[in-house]
Amino acid sequence: xxFMEEIWNKAKEEPKRIVLAEGEEERTIQxxxxxxxNSLATVILVGxxxxxxxxxxxxxxxxxxxEIIDPxxxxxxxxxxxxxxxxxxxxxxxxxxxxKIVRDPIYYAxxxxxxxxxxxxxxxxxxxxxxxxxxxxxxxxxxPGVSIVSGFxxxxxxxxxxxxxxxxxFADCAVNPxxxxxxxxxxxxxxxxxxKTLCNMExxxxxxxxSTYGSAKHELVDKVRIATEIAHKLRPDLDIDGELQLDAAxxxxxxxxxxxxxxxxxxxxxxxxxxLQTGNIGYKLVQRFAKADxxxxxxxxxxxxxxxxxxxxxxxxxxxxxxxxxVQAQNRI
Length: 333
Description:
- This protein is of the alpha/beta class.
- It has 2 domains: 3-141 and 302-331, Rossmann fold, CATH 3.40.50; 150-289, Isocitrate/Isopropylmalate dehydrogenase-like (Rossmann fold, 3-Layer(aba) Sandwich).
- Helix content is 45%, strand content 17%.
- The strands form 2 sheets. The chain has a 6-stranded mixed β-sheet with strand order 8-7-9-6-5-10, with helices on both faces. A 5-stranded parallel β-sheet has the order 3-2-1-4-11, with helices on both faces.
- 49% of the residues are buried.
């Protein structure tokens, strides 16, 4: 059984209410039917009901019991506007402005999750990552004890002995362009927890660099080394090691030469990249050259599950990210 089969089975055990903020988008409408048919989640589409149903008819999609909520006519609009005003009034928010903002489907959907009217949110098929993260950080905010939201990919590499038989987690590949050492440490800790809860892994976290154990001297190496030290102080129970070059992280014979005695080197299943450039390039290299499945980007660190999609996503991508979001909601990752 592969990772997504396991996620689908977990999602079906306790279906959650997942809000799709881009309810009028065609791929989203088609995905909603598949999600409901497979009992992966209870879908709530946000948007104009007439337009959604017209598109569904054109696409020959049966929305069945899918709930559709139009912010413009919702009975909760005033309540959400008041809550959003209270959250943001110290930032100069007015009630009039709040009423206008929460009519936006992404803001409305985020308010639904904040108030427990939905268990998780998925968006991004036609919006940028920033469009999703902004209301998420303003409204839902980070989970207790978590200082930073980050993004990861679950990489499933065929015919591969690395990680957990080709299953690895890459982070942060989506959110933070240039994290500080402290932020990098917190990303490593969050990703280790994700590996346990979402992937049922015993995390072996490699803090990646172009240096292994001081083989090169540079401020970029220093950042990774310091991040590793911070992570050890915050969570001494986790197996986190660095700085490590990629080959030392995943190849046992290289690890014996470059990092003897390491609990992680040669056995890493979680790879933490030093910045967004390397993370984004790294996952796409593996995806293209190794023909790996890349599930994500998936967000971690929010108080409630909020997940992004690529604007080039397929219907299958939407279905899978909704399933992951449902499992996150079960576990409150």
